[in-house]
Design goal:
Layout (H helix, E strand, L loop, with lengths): L1 E6 L7 E3 L5 E7 L2 E5 L3 E4 L4 E4 L5 E5 L3 E7 L7 E4 L6
Antiparallel strand pairs: 1-8, 2-9, 3-6, 3-8, 4-5, 4-7
């Protein structure tokens, strides 16, 4: 499955994990980092970051960021640990 994600400068995704989904992020535009329980992986255009099942993470955009998420096709496989904004 392939998704395009846009994260505005200064914002981040929820802190979450997936029980089954295996993801690889390709950074198309922007800079920032992915925060895991035990580390931060900084990114810039052209970088890829692999996220395994059960790895808790949040994507933080230092500048307006566009990334492609290639993953195994588990659409309803997100467990939110912490939300930073109201969930719609």
């Amino acid at each position: 499955m392939l998704k395009e994600l846009y994260i505005r400068e200064g914002y981040q995704s929820s802190y979450h994990y997936h029980k089954n989904k295996d993801e690889t992020m390709l950074i198309v535009r922007g800079t920032g980092y992915i925060e895991f329980d035990d580390r931060r992986e900084y990114f810039e255009v052209g970088d890829t970051i692999h996220i395994k099942p059960y790895e808790k993470h949040t994507i933080v955009a230092s500048t307006d960021t566009v990334l492609y998420e290639a993953s195994t096709p588990f659409l309803e496989d997100t467990t939110r640990v912490k939300d930073f904004y109201p969930v719609r």
